[in-house]
Amino acid sequence: MPKPLYEQELKTLQARLVEMQKWVQQSGARVVVIFEGRDAAGKGSAIKRVSEYMNPRQTRIVALPAPSERDKTRWYFQRYVPHLPAGGEIVLMDRSWYNRAGVERVMGYCTNEEYQRFLHQAPIFERMLVEDGIILLKYWFSVSDVVQEERFRSRLEDPMRRWKLSPTDLSSITKWEDYSRAKDTMFLHTDIAEAPWYEIESDDKRRSRINVMAHILSKVPWEPVPQAPIEIPERPPSAGYERPPRQWTNSVPDYAREVEKRAGASD
C-alpha cells in the first residue's frame, strides 16, 4: 500500500477509533480484542497503531509474561480473568489464552490432557464472556514463511529490535508446519458463531493495520457521542508570584543544545 495513502487513511481511522472509545466509555461497553498470529506477523505494530491516540486510562494493552509456577497450578483461564475490561474499557490482548493452542502445544509446554481440555473449555469460556455482554473480537495475523524470515533477519540486524528475537520465536521457522497444524485445529474447535476468528493477511503491514482498524470499527456498535463545547479560560492577572531562582533547583543538562552545536560544527 503506498505510504502517503496509508498515512492519510491511518489518521482517519485513528480519529474514528478515538470517537469509538468515547462511545465505549459513555455507554459502559466492554470490549476485548485478541491479536494472535505467528511470530513477526505484525500483531504488535498493529496494536500500537490502534491504541496510539486512545486514552490509556480506558484502553489497556495486555501482554502477559510466561506463567509463574503458581500460575501453572491455577485454572488456565484464571490468570486472564483479572485483565478483562470493566464498564467503559477496551482491552487489546497481545497474545491471549490461545497461547495454549499455539506455542504451548507446539513447544511441548503443556500436556496433551491440558491441551484437549483447553480446546473444550475455550468456546465455553468465550460464550460466557459474550453472554455477559463483552464484545469479543479475535484476529489472526497471517504471514507467509518468506516474509516472516525476512522480518526475523531485519530484527537481527537492528539493535533496537533484536530483543524481539528469542529461541521460541526462531523455532517458528523450523516448526512451521507444526504451527500450521496447531492453528488449523485451533480454528476448528474455537471458531464459534458467538466469537468467530477473523484472518488478517499481514505480508503487507500497512494494509493489515488499515484492515484490522476498519474491521474493529465495523464490529463495535458505536456511534458518535456529542461533546460539550470546551472553552479555555483567560489567564487571571498576576497576584505577585515570583518563581524561585533557577539555581535553587536541579535542572537537566541541555543535551539538545550540545547536539545542535555538533550538528552546526559538522555543517
From TrEMBL:
Pfam families from the UniProt entry: PPK2
The protein's assembly and partners: Homotetramer.
Assigned protein family: Belongs to the polyphosphate kinase 2 (PPK2) family. Class I subfamily.
Gene3D superfamilies per record: P-loop containing nucleotide triphosphate hydrolases (3.40.50.300)
Functional description taken from the UniProt entry: Uses inorganic polyphosphate (polyP) as a donor to convert GDP to GTP or ADP to ATP.
NCBIfam families: PPK2_P_aer (TIGR03707)
Domain of life, source organism: Bacteria
Uppermost EC category: transferase
Region (Disordered): 227-254
Organism annotation: Agromyces bracchium
Keywords: Kinase, Transferase
Enzyme Commission code(s) on record: 2.7.4.-
Coiled-coil ranges from the UniProt annotation: none
Key word Oxidoreductase present: no
The protein's name in its UniProt record: ADP/GDP-polyphosphate phosphotransferase
A GO MF term: polyphosphate kinase activity
GO biological process: phosphorus metabolic process
UniProt-listed InterPro entries: P-loop_NTPase (IPR027417), Polyphosphate_phosphotransfera (IPR016898), PPK2-related (IPR022488), PPK2_PA0141 (IPR022486)
Domain Polyphosphate kinase-2-related: 5-222
Amino-acid biosynthesis keyword on record: no
